[in-house]
Structures are given as structure tokens and as C-alpha cells.
What we know:
Layout: E1 3-22, E2 26-35, E3 44-46, H1 48-53, E4 64-66, E5 71-73, E6 77-79, E7 85-101, E8 115-123, H2 128-134, E9 136-145, E10 153-160, E11 165-182, E12 184-185, H3 193-197, E13 207-208, H4 210-215, E14 223-225, E15 234-236, H5 240-272, H6 288-300, H7 305-334, H8 338-357, E16 360-366, H9 376-379, H10 381-390, H11 392-397, E17 403-405, H12 406-409, E18 418-424, E19 433-434, H13 439-450
Parallel strand pairs: 16-18
Antiparallel strand pairs: 1-7, 1-11, 2-5, 2-6, 2-8, 3-7, 4-5, 8-9, 9-17, 10-11, 12-13, 14-15, 16-19
Helix pairs in contact: 5-6, 5-7
Amino acid sequence: MTALEVEWKLSLEFDNFSNLDLFQRGCYQVRCRYKGPPSLQYAFHLATDVQQDSMRGDYLCGASILNDGAVFATSVVNVQYRKEEFSLNEVATATLTAQTDSTELPHRFTLPHLQLVVDLLFCDGYSQCDVSRSLQVVCSRVVDMHFNSSHNVHHRIPLVFDYFHLANVSFTVHGVLSSVRSTLQSPSLEKSWFHNLFSSQPEQPLESTLPKVLFGDFSHKRKKRLSRKASSQAKYEVLHNDLDHARAVHKKLCAVLLSSLDGLVSSFTYLMDIIPQRQRLTIALPDKASRLDSLMDGVKSCDDASVMIAAVERDLDNLHAEINFLWTQYTEAVSLNPSIIRAMAEEHDRQTMNRLYEASIIHRWPLETCSRLSPKGKFSHSRIADAIRRSQYIELAVAPLQLTCTETDGECTSMPIIFEDRYDVQLPIGQKRNSPHTMRSMFCICWDVCRGRAVCMY
């Protein structure tokens, strides 16, 4: 397996902590860490201006980075009253790297099984020197992050803890795929391992895996050294088909980075329309198709492996630098902006209601049938609900949000199916009418009925 290293930039913004109905008075703190595949590596970094602003007099301890960058801890707040709110306004950035198999190079790189673990810590002490050692985890929430290169991650979620620690913390996550690069590995040795064990020769330098990604795993017959002076560089005797394969891989890699750049520009443009006029920044809208064509034209004339490798590295480095430059402008303009926080909160509520709307069924009946309605329809609700949950339509229609918590948001298989009967005075007797909002949910029932999976009409 030839590995590629994929890098993501993430910004985590905690803006508010509120006490809904905590049972105990004391000190509370929120800590978070990322959880992903075994090859995932990351480190938190606290923003400089936020670090200076977090040491305020109304908090016992400011925001900090723990466990060598693995854990981000917010300020410690002293909760004394019910429905008490605290403005955190703390930001931490992180760079995540993971490895993916180049033989299964997708058009969109996803970050599989990436989760954000949010812990609520509590202690009943009030001395500043004892708070950090006395805090204990009382509740944990796992937030699933659905991340791909075309849409990136730009979402805000209010996270509610369990019943015995009924507190709410609101945070926003911005993320972008920043680079795709080759990894470094030890060169393959022709000698046996027993000979290498007792050999006094120095270790050979690490080699890049980009040639193997572009041209495949070459055998030793097709790999020749130029000279002893240039022994660190290898020249490959490639065929025309190998160059075509390298151009195809180069196109896929550039398309992934351009999709990430286009998604970041689209989010930047959308958020700039929300903030006040004096805070807006003007950015140029790139043409993804023409930019990709220009990059492809640059490697068409490459007829040598070393020239091809240098051109691919140059294009990937240029796109990586362009994404990082735009990401820096994005975080400076967007982080902790009140207008953007309100807009993203409304967008989260709208998306949540749309998910519930997909599983709501409304029937309108004549008012005269209120007293003599047959219970047959009520008993068929369970069969309709089972048919909806078994249908493929509900899996596609009720798509998960970018940030979801299973404990609080539920899943499409466990979400409630809402039935509502409305009695209309103007509706004639003998006529039943479905609400327009019902047609999408009723479609999945008819879709299953046509395939003989369920018959639950009433």
C-alpha cells in the first residue's frame, strides 16, 4: 500500500456556556479532544488574542492546552445560580493529518470516523490552586463530524449534557482540507535482514512515495541510479501508459484541492453577506474548471518521470499555499463574529426542523367526523412508521448534519414519526386531504408498497 498524507485545518470556537438546571453548585469546565482512525495525528493551538482575553477576573482559570496539545480546555466557570450564562469566546485551532491508500484514490477525500469528544468536568472547590487538580469528568458527549473535501465543515451546534448535569455549551467548527502530499518511507533494501542487522553502513535517507503514487510500484529492473553523486535521486524508465496514469492521478489530486478551495470560497462569500459592511472582505471567485484545465496543460508536455514528479509537487504546493492563505483570512474574519454566530444558529435550527419535517404526516378531516372517527387509522400508525423507517427514502432524505450527537439528536432509525390529525370546518364530509408537507413522507410509503415491502394505507 502506497500512502498519501491528507491534512485538514480545523478551528473550534466556544462562545457560550449556560446552566439550564444544574443540581450542584461549583466549578465547571469543558474539555474536548478529537478521536479518529489510528493514523490520525493532531495538536491544538490556542489563539494568542484569545489566550490573553481568557484570563479574566470572573473565571478561576483561563483556557489552556493539555496533554501536549491533545486536549483543549475552556475556562473554569463558577456556577451559583440557575439559568446562569457565561461568555467564553475562546478559539483553538488544530491541524489534523491522516494517511489514506493511494490505490483507492477517491474524488472526494473524507475523514472517516472523526469524532469530537466533549467532556464536562466538575468540582465543588473554590480555591484557584485546587481547581485544576479537583476537576472530574461527570458527563461526556461524542459529536460525529461528517467531513468531505467539497463542502468542508462550517457548522454550529448547541450541545446539551445529561439530565443530572443539565448544562449547555455552544460551539462552532470550521474546517477545510488543506493539502494532500506524499509520505516519507525507508527505501527497499535488496540485502537480507540478517545482513542488514550486522551491517555498519549508515542508514539511508527516507524517500518520497510520490513516484509510486504516480507511476505505481516499480520493480528494480525499471529503476536505475544515475551515478554515485546523484544516488539520492532515481530516474524511472517509464512507458507512455505510465505517464498517462500519472496525469490521471495528478488530475484527481488537483481536483480534490480545487474542490476544497471552491468550498472555502463559497462559505467565505456567504458569510461576508451576513456581517456588517465595514467588516466585509472582497475575494475573487476562482473558476474551478478553467483552473483545472490550466493545471492539466502544464503536465501534458512532460515526457520524463523526474519532470513529471517536479511538476506535480509544484502544483500541489501552490494549491496548498493558496488554501492556507485563504484559511488565515477566513479565520480572522469569521471567528467569534456575533452576526455569524446568530446566522449559523438559525441555520442549525432550520436544518433540524427540516429533518423532523421529513417524518411528519398531517391529515385533514371534516369537522363532522371528529366524534365518529374509526380507530382503524390510529392503529395503522405503527405500521406506517415501520414502513417509513425501513424505506431507503428516509435514509437519503434525513441526511445527518455536519455535526451530530447521537445522544441528543438521534438517528434516522430512531427518530419519531409524527402523526397529526386536523379537523377542518370547510372540508366536505367524505373527503380527506393530506397536507403538502405530508407528500414527501407519504411518497416513501407508496414507494415501499409498489415493491411489496409494506401495505399500510388507511
